[in-house]
TrEMBL record, chain B:
<dbReference type="Pfam" id="PF01740">
    <property type="entry name" value="STAS"/>
</dbReference>
<dbReference type="InterPro" id="IPR003658">
    <property type="entry name" value="Anti-sigma_ant"/>
</dbReference>
<dbReference type="InterPro" id="IPR002645">
    <property type="entry name" value="STAS_dom"/>
</dbReference>
<dbReference type="InterPro" id="IPR036513">
    <property type="entry name" value="STAS_dom_sf"/>
</dbReference>
<comment type="similarity">
    <text>Belongs to the anti-sigma-factor antagonist family.</text>
</comment>
<feature type="domain" description="STAS">
    <location>
        <begin position="5"/>
        <end position="123"/>
    </location>
</feature>
<protein>
    <recommendedName>
        <fullName>Anti-sigma factor antagonist</fullName>
    </recommendedName>
</protein>
Length: 398, 123
């Protein structure tokens, strides 16, 4: 048996080999969707991971992440996480739900080094027919939407990495690809890559590369060139560098016109939800009947409007409730906004089972919204408080 | 846009059959209470209340809470509450909020009356 440092070196070589087998370059096409990923490892075995999976010939799931540590720890954690992802993604649910389930598994491990730093992960689910992406991140660097000739736009996705808090809730961002748009995921090794003078590559350089990325340059070429340019700086690299790009290349312009939008503004008076409910129902029956969600949507919007008028605006007729409905091929988003301070939805959801008769019904509106929506969230800005509800069509494209 | 609630009450041997028409929402309570003060019971020893929602197009959480309050009062005053004619969507919502712990759901008046007959005959 060899002695000294040779066994360790052999194990690391084996680890590197294992990781490479699990992480081949991605070049996946499904209909108008194309996913490309490239990764270059640091001198040590690093912890970047990425994946792309086709689900039911209709959805492409993409993953990018970074596990803490190097060497054997990373080499074993990466395949384990990829297995967990592939197992969980087939069980269904949106990216936030997937992150939640994976988080609970990792938090349950209580692994030393994991609970302190956590695993950063980003998951995107692309509906290939509709060109709609749902993305959620867990402590991972915020992805970019990049359009040739335009400044890239960074999507907000702040949350804790996986494994640190079993109760962490993850938020989804939903968007529809515009013609020519690219969705770009990356690991922190890209940003933190240091030149010989120690200066980081940084977000500014990445954004400049994204803005200069011409429409006719394939994603693989753009990524290889960026990675080569970093390596030309001849620094010692301690971190893996990974890029993953989702492109939606066909049928985009026509689909965009399918997106419909309608908004209402009603005074905060009892019963103000009814006119919105009637008009929304008529619109959905005409344009989105195949979704099978009309009744759910109308109920949720009516409850949200009622809450906004009563609890948000205190039935003050001078204050208005604004309702926006956007729907496309596969998803509908409704936003109900009031001028109030907002509420603690966890406390509200806990209500509704009071033994006192006149307390009955308190919190039921939110309970119905929680049960009937595919996803919902609350936001606040300078204009007021907003309940945002997402509904997926139940209609499956043939 | 609100469709004010209308009620049609038809007594039968052991109870009352109430057909509601319009919206069942926060404004409905006053209207129902004006013709049926459920907290005093159904009167004349009646033990069954059938609420027919076949012509109710809109029910919100306040309307569902009202149905539960009626049914809970019924337990105290010794009458059973039956709800019929609710659409599949509203039946789903009733289950979500726990209304079915207090009322029995039937597709129509006839089915509810059959069940009442069975109860009366001790089946």
């Amino acid at each position: 048996m060899p002695g000294g440092t040779e066994p360790l070196a052999a194990e690391l070589r084996l680890a590197l080999e294992v990781q490479r087998k699990w992480q081949p370059p991605v070049d996946l096409r499904l209909g108008p969707c194309r996913v490309t990923a490239r990764s270059r490892q640091a001198a040590e075995v690093g912890g970047d991971l990425f994946d792309a999976v086709v689900l039911d010939d209709a959805v492409v799931a993409v993953l990018i992440g970074d596990v803490p540590g190097k060497g054997l720890q990373a080499a074993f954690m990466v395949p384990a996480l990829l297995l967990l992802f592939r197992s969980e993604v087939k069980r269904g649910g949106g990216p936030a739900e997937l992150l939640g389930r994976m988080n609970r598994v990792l938090a349950g491990l209580s692994a030393e080094g994991l609970t302190a730093v956590g695993v950063t992960l980003g998951i995107g689910l692309l509906d290939v027919q509709a060109g709609e992406m749902r993305y959620a991140g867990a402590g991972h660097p915020a992805p970019y939407l990049a359009m040739p000739g335009a400044e890239p736009r960074q999507l907000d996705s702040s949350s804790l990495p996986l494994g640190m808090n079993a109760e962490e809730n993850y938020r989804e961002t939903v968007f529809r690809f515009a013609p020519g748009e690219r969705f770009v995921l990356y690991t922190d090794g890209i940003i933190e890559d240091a030149g010989p003078d120690g200066e980081m590559y940084g977000f500014d350089r990445l954004e400049a590369e994204l803005a200069d990325w011409a429409a006719d340059v394939p994603a693989a070429d753009w990524m290889e060139r960026l990675l080569d340019s970093q390596e030309s700086r001849e620094a010692y690299r301690r971190d893996d560098r990974t890029l993953l790009v989702v492109e939606y290349t066909a049928g985009k312009a026509g689909r965009r016109t399918e997106l419909r939008e309608r908004s209402w503004r009603v005074p905060s008076v009892p019963g103000c939800e009814r006119s919105v409910a009637v008009e929304l129902a008529a619109m959905l029956r005409e344009h989105w009947s195949e979704s099978g969600r009309t009744d759910d949507i109308v109920t949720c919007v009516a409850e949200a409007v009622m809450n906004a008028a009563e609890h948000g605006n205190g039935f003050d007729e001078t204050k208005t409730v604004t309702i926006q409905a956007h729907f496309g091929h596969a998803i509908m988003v409704c936003r109900v906004r009031d001028e109030g301070p907002g509420f603690d939805f966890a406390a509200k959801l806990a209500g509704g089972r009071a033994e006192v008769d006149n307390e009955y019904g308190r919190g039921w509106g939110l309970r119905l919204i929680d049960e009937l929506t595919d996803y919902w969230m609350t936001t606040r800005d300078q204009h007021g408080f907003c309940v945002e509800m997402y509904f997926l069509s139940h209609h499956r494209q043939s | 846009m609100n469709s004010m609630l209308e009620l049609n009450i038809v007594p039968f041997d052991a109870g009352l059959s109430v057909t509601l028409k319009g919206d069942l929402d926060q404004q409905a309570e006053q209207k129902i209470r004006s013709v049926l003060d459920w907290e005093d019971g159904l009167g004349e020893g009646r033990r069954y209340l059938i609420l027919n929602l076949h012509e109710v197009n809109f029910i919100n959480s306040a309307g569902m809470a009202l149905l539960i309050r009626i049914a809970r009062a019924g337990r105290k005053k010794g009458f059973h509450t039956f709800v019929c004619g609710a659409s599949a969507h509203y039946q789903k919502l009733f289950r979500m909020v726990g209304l079915t712990e207090y009322v029995m759901l039937y597709p129509d008046d006839y089915a509810a009356l059959q069940r009442i007959e069975a109860l009366e005959s001790g089946v």
